[in-house]
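Why Aldo/keto reductase? Reviewers of the renewal asked for a concrete example.
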Amino acid sequence: MNYRQIGSTDLKVSELSFGTWAIGGSWGSTKDEESLRGLDRAMDAGVNFFDTADVYGDGHAEELLAKATKGKHDEIHIATKFARAGDIHDPKTYSLESVSQYAENSLKRLGREQIDLFQIHCPPIEILRDGQVFEVLDRLKEQGKIRYYGVSVETVEEGLLCMENPNVSSLQVIFNLFRQKPATELFPAAAERNVGILARVPLASGLLTGKFKKNAEFEEDDHRNFNRDGQAFNVGETFAGLEFNKGVELADKLSWIAEGRGNMTQASLKWILEHEAVSSVIPGFKTVAQVEDNLQALNASAYSAEEMKKIEQFYKEEVAANIRGPY
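Here is what the prediction returned.
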């Protein structure tokens, strides 16, 4: 396992880590026993960082992490997120009283005394422009409830705005083969300001595993069913903003990347790891087998300069115009 620094923090994290939205909920049925085995397998492989949120299964993902990391608080770092348990458009959601309560609730579920990285969970740009939430987070740092803070954003514009605050340590962004815009417009600015990048939705909700066929159906409680067209939250969080059947078609055209790299999953994650600005890529999982598959990306062959250029052109010519929603 290789480790990378999250911006200017002292958090040195595994370059391939894991998100816990899937094991918390909204990705179809899960089994806690399997989820815990997956977390254990990841840690055995050297993963020392996990991303979660208070709304993943209404706190269930945080509780699972508490069980898996008990007694390992010094060696396993956890990032969690807040705000979406309330009205994200209401300024009161970002008040000192509200944010303190979100932090206390997460700390209780995590069984910890301090949150390593506390992230605002995809707030509206108006909240970021106002900026008072950053003063609140500075207070929580002073109180010792959190070590560092960052923001999970939907768009490049939001990310650039966040970095105007010097105490923002990280940005979590949608970044994958179908969402390459951050590499050219956001990553250079983050590198210049020494802000860490966490790459989420790295497999485009499974499209980039290459396993889906057109017109595939998903369970009722799976966001790939109920948010397929942005009905519940930002459309970009599901299939990277692509219409599902179009996404399957585009993934098929990219299948060549798997040659010599195991499979599409491993090749897709490897491509993200080729970007030095990325502190960690955080795929999700529901089974131990998926954890194993993701970990194999670390052993995949590097991309040549010609391959990287070919992928960039493919994005510009065939993908970008099909992405729905702001990004």
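The longest strand covers residues 115-121. This is the kind of structural detail the renewal will allow us to pursue systematically.
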